[in-house]
Amino acid sequence: xxxxxxxxxxxxxxxxxxxxxxxxxxxxxxxxxxxxxxxxxxxxxxxxxxxxxxxxxxxxxxxxxxxxxxxxxxxxxxxxxxxxxxxxxxxxxxxxxxxxxxxxxxxxxxxxxxxxxxxxxxxxxxxxxxxxxxxxxxxxxxxxxxxxxxxxxxxxxxxxxxxxxxxxxxxxxxxxxxxxxxxxxxxxxxxxxxxxxxxxxxxxxxxxxxxxxxxxxxxxxxxxxxxxxxxxxxxxxxxxxxxxxxxxxxxxxxxxxxx
Length: 259
Description:
This protein has helices at about 70-80, 105-115, 185-190, 215-220, 225-240; strands at about 30, 50-55, 60-65, 85, 95, 120-125, 140, 155-160, 175-180, 200-205, 205-215, 245-250. By secondary structure, the protein is of the alpha+beta class. A 6-stranded mixed sheet has the order 1-12-8-9-11-10. A 6-stranded mixed sheet has the order 4-5-3-2-6-7. About 40% of the residues are buried.
């Protein structure tokens, strides 16, 4: 991944119908999905940031609502963290450190944003697969502050991995969803969406760190990523939650393929 060098641009405008546009990106880029509405009144939503690892030297910082991106970047800058937007079209920021980005640094960023009156969550175990199989895909919340549910904002991440069945260009990917947010909201989602998905909670002391859902139906070609996103969005609506759904594509690039 090319590390950005410029300061964040103002948040990009939404599409005319108020929904997130699908933005291009390489295999490690979080992408908003068309058809997922932002269910908020800007005046009622606390700017919220999700910090997850992108690699040994980088971390994604995703902001909700989008028009709070500049505010989050400015708050982080005052606390000594430089967050950059990789491209003018990106709806996420990047924290980078050429000397390596320790989990303690991710925790410190989230704590600094929380101390400044925003809402932030940082997680380890969210980037490329760890060398130890037991660590793969198991989020661990970082930082000393645990924001409580304020306005029903959660972050939903759909991770795409290499196909389980077949290896051709048309083979459907395997997919896993991770839901991040306050323990109270995660518990609400688990209870409300239990009829739609088989949900595995990721516990932490005193609550719940995240939720995981494996989508065998996607790997088997029984449903599409677009249909899955629509169902996740419907589940959020049912329990009164809001927030972005991002696709993180971790499939290996085909030989000779482009970015």
